[in-house]
């Protein structure tokens, strides 16, 4: 500071830098502790918004998706907590409770109805009276006709009689024996959805079926995710000839009609597994026995054929991402291919991965119910929504609700998964929104 | 163009070959002799069958024999459902029924789905749009057996008895199966064409057309729709497959004597030659349909460079 540099010569165009240099000189005041006011300036006004927080906020704003999410949680509770609460087993034959409707008439009402109903003899007597009033007599043929009519017309007549007597159906199904036990002060759990022809509680079966559908959907989606992500990222990252060959394979698998092949695989592997389970013992055989041969073959089919879409999406993403500077930087630092894929590429297409996985769930549920409906899905005594609907086809006009309940739950579940998936897509990738 | 077509045809042939091979080895994986059921056929029949398919020979020989039989159109004979009846004859009898229903279903799906999609796109953000969107989202969330059985409950005696519940080939009995089979594709097509239409409407040439004073109808149908139809067309190829497979369910619900129902019955009866033959036949049909749509797609849209992946 003391020996100042010479001023520039007069007329020189050289800049006079003395003042500028002195700007960056530190004085003692610069080393004084910061005042509290200055400190406050460094405190963040609000937390920085991370990617997930941002997405979460967008998702919560989406009313439709939120409602769908709540419905999904309710359905999951119904499927996983429900069977704990209901005291009936899904494969339990409740003797005396066969073919119950999801409604019942109280015992008093039933007595009232029986008293009001005409027996065939009464109908005959009434007809005779009417005939006598008109001056006619009725022969034995007429008698047989009238008595048969009175016997047969039970259904229609009963409905009208019930209306006349003011008897109303009460909610939930009870058999007469259960009604008597209830009258005696016992607490009897109602058959909310009625029972089937073997006396199995339909609600418990729907719960278990929903559980099967959900588990199948989630695990199939995870399976697809793992295989698709691996295949797609390797193909996209390596590029060149490897990519070309891998993409040919994808194209071929893509053009195989998967439903047909899955039906085929489900049948064949199902048979092979069944005979394996029957002839072997040990861990694998036990596992296969628990899961059921058809379910396993369904997963195998999924693992073989359904990862194609996922791998295509991830490959596309990786092809874009691998041009980024940070990938070049990582490679320059000597990171290996697997590490770059794992640490840099996959985390950066997590949005796409989550959305595709979520939209994979309903398609897996679709497929499972389709196979079960056709009779190659889950094996008895396990049940599923599709197989319940298939069983209900027989008595559809008399017991339509046996089909309605599983069909309704299935549709609601698929719809909710679709809506949540759409909501996630909008939240994670707003650019895609149309 | 020729190169592209040739490449696609070769690939389709390879895929068919792959499916046939897969089918063959899957059938080999089945424990026991595929011709033996609970009721074992007489030894002479068994011997004839074994000889015909060379079951006593090594696997490679069997494979070539099977493939050459296949090339001559010999798909084997049914062993359980219609004993010793050739599978190819079964297919010839049953496939037209399924194809007819499938064709009607796809036809109404396209004829209704595309205009609905255009309507929704043109009235974007209005009540019409949101109603259609709700309907279509619900539509693609309902498995075809749900739609079919609900229709059956409502229209075949449950509420009103307008249609026969069992398919008898009369025009009236076609209504419900075709409707339920086409419902899912209709919703899907409507969604697709809405998105495609929105894309098309926002293009510059539409603005130009409007600035020139063209009428709305002409803009939509003459300028926008043509371009909007292209993505819908790509979807139609795989849809043929879906409609056929959805046919399994619909034919089961309405007891239609088509190939789909027969296939499902053969699956549950474990009639392996029928399963095998039908799978190969249907798979080839679907693959060829996909191929046609793929080629058509490139013909319709000249912007796409042929022979290259976009």
From TrEMBL, chain A:
UniProt subcellular location: Cell membrane
Protein name per its UniProtKB record: ABC-type dipeptide/oligopeptide/nickel transport system permease subunit
SUPFAM superfamilies cross-referenced by the UniProt entry: MetI-like (SSF161098)
UniProt topology in membrane: Multi-pass membrane protein
Keyword annotations of the record: Cell membrane, Membrane, Transmembrane, Transmembrane helix, Transport
Organism: Intestinimonas butyriciproducens
Domain of life of the organism encoding this protein: Bacteria
GO cellular component terms, A-Z: plasma membrane
Transmembrane portions of the chain: 63-86, 212-231, 252-270, 290-308, 365-383, 403-424
Chain ranges of the ABC transmembrane type-1 domain: 210-421
Family to which this protein belongs: Belongs to the binding-protein-dependent transport system permease family.
KW Transport (keyword) present: yes
Pfam entry (one): BPD_transp_1
Main location: membrane
GO biological process, one term: transmembrane transport
């Amino acid at each position: 500071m003391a020996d100042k540099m010479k001023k520039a010569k007069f007329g020189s165009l050289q800049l006079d830098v003395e003042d500028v240099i002195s700007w960056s000189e530190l004085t003692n005041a610069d080393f004084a502790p910061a005042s509290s006011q200055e400190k406050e300036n460094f405190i963040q006004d609000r937390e920085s918004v991370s990617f997930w927080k941002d997405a979460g906020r967008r998702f919560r704003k989406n009313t439709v998706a939120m409602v769908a999410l709540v419905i999904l949680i309710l359905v999951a509770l119904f499927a996983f907590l429900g069977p704990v609460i209901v005291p009936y087993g899904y494969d339990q034959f409740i003797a005396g409770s066969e073919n119950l409707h999801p409604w019942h008439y109280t015992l008093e009402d039933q007595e009232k109805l029986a008293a009001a109903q005409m027996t065939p003899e009464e109908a005959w007597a009434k007809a005779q009276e009417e005939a006598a009033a008109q001056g006619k007599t009725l022969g034995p043929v007429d008698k047989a006709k009238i008595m048969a009519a009175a016997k047969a017309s039970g259904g229609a007549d009963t409905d009208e009689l019930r209306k006349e007597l003011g008897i109303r159906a009460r909610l939930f199904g009870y058999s007469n024996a259960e009604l008597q036990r209830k009258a005696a002060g016992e607490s009897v759990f109602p058959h909310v959805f009625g029972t089937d022809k073997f006396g199995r509680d339909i609600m418990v079966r729907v719960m278990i079926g929903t559980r099967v559908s959900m588990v199948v959907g989630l695990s199939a989606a995870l399976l697809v995710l793992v295989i698709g992500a691996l295949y797609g990222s390797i193909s996209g990252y390596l590029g060149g000839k490897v990519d070309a060959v891998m993409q040919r394979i994808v194209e071929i698998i893509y053009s195989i009609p998967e439903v047909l092949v899955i039906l085929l695989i489900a049948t064949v592997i199902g048979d092979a597994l069944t005979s394996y389970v029957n002839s072997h013992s040990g861990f694998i055989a036990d596992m296969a026995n628990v899961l059921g041969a058809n379910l396993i073959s369904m997963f195998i089919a999924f693992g073989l054929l359904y990862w194609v879409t996922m791998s295509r999406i991830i490959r596309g993403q990786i092809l874009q991402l691998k041009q980024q500077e940070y990938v070049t930087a990582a490679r320059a630092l000597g990171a290996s291919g697997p590490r770059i894929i794992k640490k840099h590429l996959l985390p950066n297409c997590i949005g796409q991965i989550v959305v595709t996985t979520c939209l994979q769930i309903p398609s897996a549920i679709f497929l499972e119910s389709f196979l079960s409906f056709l009779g190659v899905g889950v094996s008895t005594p396990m049940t599923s929504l599709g197989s319940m609907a298939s069983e209900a086809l027989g008595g559809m006009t008399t017991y339509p609700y046996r089909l309605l309940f599983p069909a309704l739950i299935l549709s609601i579940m698929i719809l909710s998964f679709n809506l949540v998936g759409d909501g996630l897509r909008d939240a994670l990738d707003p650019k895609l929104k149309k | 163009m020729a190169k592209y077509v040739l490449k696609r045809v070769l690939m389709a042939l390879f895929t068919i070959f792959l499916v046939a091979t897969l089918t063959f080895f899957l059938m080999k994986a089945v424990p026991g002799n595929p011709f033996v059921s609970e009721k074992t056929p007489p030894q002479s029949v068994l011997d004839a069958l074994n000889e015909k398919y060379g079951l006593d020979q090594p696997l490679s020989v069997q494979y070539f024999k099977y493939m050459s039989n296949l090339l001559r159109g010999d798909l084997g004979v049914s062993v359980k459902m219609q004993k010793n009846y050739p599978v190819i004859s079964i297919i010839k009898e049953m496939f037209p029924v399924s194809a007819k229903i499938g064709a009607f279903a796809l036809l109404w799906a396209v004829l209704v789905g595309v205009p609905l999609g255009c309507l929704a796109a043109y009235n974007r953000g209005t009540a019409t749009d949101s109603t259609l969107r709700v309907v279509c989202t619900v539509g693609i969330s309902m498995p075809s057996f749900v739609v079919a059985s609900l229709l059956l409950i409502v229209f075949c005696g449950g509420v009103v008895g307008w249609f026969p519940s069992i398919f008898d080939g009369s025009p009236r009995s076609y209504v419900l199966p075709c409707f339920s089979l086409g419902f899912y594709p209709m919703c899907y097509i409507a969604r697709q064409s809405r998105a495609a239409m929105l894309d098309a409407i926002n293009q510059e040439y539409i603005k130009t057309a409007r600035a020139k004073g063209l009428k709305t109808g002409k803009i939509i149908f003459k300028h926008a729709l043509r371009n909007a139809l292209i993505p819908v067309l790509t979807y139609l190829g795989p849809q043929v497959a879906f409609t056929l497979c959805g046919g399994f369910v619909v034919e089961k619900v309405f007891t239609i004597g088509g190939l789909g129902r027969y296939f499902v019955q053969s699956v549950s009866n474990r009639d392996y030659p029928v399963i095998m033959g039908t799978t190969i036949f249907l798979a080839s049909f679907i693959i060829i349909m996909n191929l046609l749509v793929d080629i058509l797609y490139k013909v319709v849209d000249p912007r796409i460079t042929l022979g290259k992946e976009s």
